[in-house]
Design brief:
It is built from 27 helices and 22 strands. The chain folds into two domains: 308 residues, TIM Barrel (Alpha-Beta Barrel); 355 residues, TIM Barrel (Alpha-Beta Barrel), CATH 3.20.20.210. The strands form six sheets. It has an eight-stranded parallel sheet. A six-stranded parallel sheet has the order 13-18-19-20-21-22. Strands 3-4 form a two-stranded antiparallel ribbon. It binds glutamine and zinc ion.
Length: 764
């Protein structure tokens, strides 16, 4: 007879059910509230989160999963790893310094002689959460410099809850950081483990019985030196606090070749993400019986209700392990919204298929109760009714949509002629000068425009009035571009506030929550749409605006769409069919829009894919498959048009090198990319690969209000012209302009057009 199964949680959303943390933090930044008030909000949010988890029935509740900005930044501060430029004196790190590291900036006492650049921010594995990248130099020396995990442990204990403190592990911390040239991050490991040892000792002293150490890098392709480093590091951690029980948590993917390593480390429990990895049998063969196994059966990365029959079978199979078992979410619940309680508008069907953080915790508890023989059979029954209704629902499954996706043929994803032929025809029809100028789509969204949209959404503004406001805006944007002398115009995207929401709201198969916020970085939260069913497009989505804009000008008007992979990446997606199927359905829906735009006389159409690279799987071995279906989805969207219709795409991230072949495989006639911040260095990928199609390397950084001079942009263009055929080059900013003001935008674009003219003269 096996022991009772316990439950634990790896982390709870910290933003609060009403984004209280966002409001409090922003009020602090704006000087409207003091540090004391913000600290107080933090305490209240933590207490509420602990209580909710206790009410849900979780045995081991996490602490130190809270953060005012980011848990990796918290860890850097705890370890005394503050970059020099912030002028830290080695004393306690207060909120002001903390936020300065996160957001950049200056305070009189920092002695940095200027504004210290913020810590770099990057994506946490394949999530949309962003952390502050730790920085390592040869001088880096770790020293316990804070008390956060101890304070929070004590805080919970005072409420009668003996939490399980959570720490990101030393190997993952080092791996996620960036080292100055010539420094091997692993050379810092010994000193780092000393501080971890001190922290574990301290937690044991406070009365902690369990601690969770996260090493998600065990789900990555690791160099041998990194794999080897685990053993010694964990032997030392083990010795540092012999009485403290350690759960080693892995998540976001299968451990594969690292599984044996993980199973053999001297810890008390190993957590596996069973939503993403089917490695249960393998681990059962490897894990010694004295070690506990934590089963991440409830998906912490998605919003769907768990299938109890499937999870129960996994847990029962795991019972042959003989040792202690835990049931848990697959990873921290940071990546899902807080609770379904605040979603009355979703409709009974959809609500019944969903589970947010609070519902997921109850699922974990119910599963454990079932296996422990304490459960209420009605719970399983209700669960299965919901699961079955999802399988059969006509809201989700639409035979015509499925049939169309099945019937896609290879040719559907291929343009009629090769680029060289298309290019000739496009040149004839469009009649553009050398170095044609364009922008990426959006123009500044004024406060008036935003408030009109808000009023229209609340039905305070009629459709007719709202549309008239949009038309006036479009007319003004067209006039300004003509005055500036831009060659390929855009309508300005005044009708959109979000690249994905605008399309999702007009497509079948998408749902929108009222409160489904998820932290993206710092105080910034996003509310991803939920793709719950087969996707189709009942009616044109953008044609009206593009057509109107085209009617106002002789110059080509570029139609603007968000691409299928970006829509997929920035939504919660179905878990009842592969991502590639959903991507294909979105692609077909967008293909209809592309063809309608073309039929309405739009000869240039841009399909944005800023998230193509984000979708890359964590393991290299899985890249080709993803890139194959992702590029096919893009081509399927684009390829129905005539040779004369020019397809553009746009991407704005920093690393093109390792996916350049796939970017070429999109076969867009023109690509615009972000390059100005790297001083055109990113173009290297396109020259090394001999990219043949046309390309617009961004000549000014739209993330900054600074207006670049004509000379600067000419300099960047000359650099690009030195490595790429001049007849391939376009002139455009780095990205859309919606976050900028009009004044600076007009000045910058005037200089940009002048830069293009100068290059044309040089060429002539
Ligand atoms: N067309 C979009 C815009 O200009 C592109 C935004 C993006 O790349 N993130 O706003
Ligand atoms: Zn962009």
């Amino acid at each position: 007879m096996s022991e009772r199964i316990l439950t634990h949680n790896l982390g709870y959303p910290r933003i609060g059910p009403n984004r209280e943390l966002k409001r409090a933090t922003e009020a602090f930044w704006a000087g409207r509230r003091g540090a004391g008030a913000l600290e107080q909000t933090g305490r209240e949010l933590r207490a509420a989160a602990w209580r909710r988890q206790r009410e849900a029935g979780i045995d081991l509740i996490p602490s130190n999963d809270f953060s005012f900005y980011d848990q990796i930044l918290d860890l850097s501060c705890l370890l005394g790893n503050v970059p020099r430029r912030f002028g830290w004196d080695g004393g306690p790190i207060g909120l002001n310094l903390y936020f300065r590291i996160a957001r950049g900036g200056h305070s009189g006492d920092c002695g940095c002689g200027g504004i210290a650049a913020a810590g770099e921010m990057t994506k946490w594995f394949d999530t949309n959460y962003h952390y502050i990248v730790p920085e390592f130099t040869k001088e880096t020396c770790f020293r316990l410099s804070g008390t956060k995990p101890f304070d929070e442990f004590r805080e919970a204990l005072a409420l009668g809850i003996r939490t399980k403190p959570v720490l990101v592990g030393p190997l993952t911390y080092l791996h996620l950081g960036k080292a100055e040239d010539g420094l091997d991050r692993l050379s810092l490991l010994d000193g780092l483990v000393d501080v971890y040892a001190e922290i574990l000792g301290g937690l044991a002293h406070e009365g902690a019985e369990w601690v969770q150490i996260d090493e998600p890098i065990l789900g990555l392709d690791l160099a041998p030196a990194w794999r080897t480093a685990f053993d010694a590091a964990y032997a030392r951690l083990r010795a540092a606090a012999p009485g403290l029980r350690i759960i080693l948590a892995t998540y976001f993917g299968a451990l594969h070749e690292n599984l044996e390593l993980a199973a053999g480390l001297p810890v008390d429990a190993l957590h596996l993400d069973l939503a993403r990895a089917s490695e249960l049998d393998a681990v059962l063969g490897l894990l010694p019986a004295e070690k506990a196994l934590s089963l991440g059966v409830v998906d912490g990365r998605n919003v769907w209700r768990n299938d109890f029959v499937v999870s129960r079978a996994l847990i029962e199979r795991a019972q042959q392990h003989g040792g202690r078992l835990f049931a848990a979410p697959s990873c921290s619940l940071l990546h899902v919204p807080v609770s379904l309680e605040r979603e009355p508008g979703l409709g009974a069907n959809l609500r019944g298929w969903l589970a947010f953080a609070d519902e997921k915790l109850r699922e974990v508890v119910t599963l454990a109760q079932m296996v422990n023989g304490e459960g209420d059979p009605v719970e399983v029954y209700k669960n299965q009714v919901a699961i079955q209704s999802r399988r059969a629902s006509g809201l989700i499954h639409r035979p015509l949509v499925k049939a169309r996706a099945v019937e896609v043929k290879r040719e559907d994803a291929e343009r009629g002629s090769p680029f060289s032929v298309r290019r000739r025809k496009q040149r004839e029809t469009l009649g553009l000068p050398a170095f044609p100028t364009t922008t990426i789509g959006s123009f500044p969204q004024t406060e008036e425009l935003r408030s009109s949209r808000a009023r229209w959404r609340k039905h305070e503004l009629s459709n007719a009035d709202y549309e008239r406001i949009l038309e006036e805006e479009i007319a003004a944007v067209v006039r300004r571009q003509e005055e500036l002398g831009i060659d390929v115009l855009v309508h300005g995207e005044a009708e959109r506030n979000d690249m994905v929401e605008y399309f999702g709201e007009q497509l079948e198969g998408f749902a929108f929550t009222a409160n489904g916020w998820v932290q993206s970085y710092g105080s910034r939260c996003v509310k991803p749409p939920v793709i719950f069913g087969d996707v189709s497009r009942p009616a044109p989505m953008t044609v009206r605006w593009s057509q109107y804009a085209q009617s106002l000008t002789e110059r080509p008007m570029k139609g603007m769409l968000t691409g299928p992979i970006t829509v997929l990446q920035w939504s919660f997606v179905r878990d009842d069919q592969p991502r590639r199927e959903t991507a294909r359905q979105i692609a077909l829906a967008l293909r209809d829009e592309v063809l309608d735009l073309e039929a309405a006389g739009i000869g240039v159409i841009q399909i944005d894919e800023p998230a193509l690279r984000e979708g890359l799987p964590l393991r290299r071995a899985d890249w080709p498959e993803y890139l194959d279906w992702a590029t096919e989805a893009f081509r399927l969207t684009a390829a129905g048009v005539r040779d004369e219709t020019q397809i553009h795409t746009h991407m704005c991230y920093c690393e093109f090198n390792d996916i350049i072949a796939s970017i070429a495989a999109l076969d867009a006639d023109v690509i615009s990319i972000e390059t100005s911040r790297s001083n055109m260095e990113l173009l290297g990928a396109f020259t090394d690969f001999a990219y043949l199609n046309e390309i617009g390397p961004g000549v000014y950084d739209i993330h900054s209000p600074r207006v670049p001079t004509t000379d600067e942009m000419v300099g960047l263009l000359r650099k690009a012209a030195a490595v790429l055929p001049t007849e391939n080059l376009w002139v455009n900013p780095d990205c859309g302009l919606k976050t900028r003001g009009w004044q600076e935008t007009l000045e910058a674009l005037r200089n940009m057009v002048e830069a293009a003219r100068r290059l044309r003269r040089e060429l002539a």
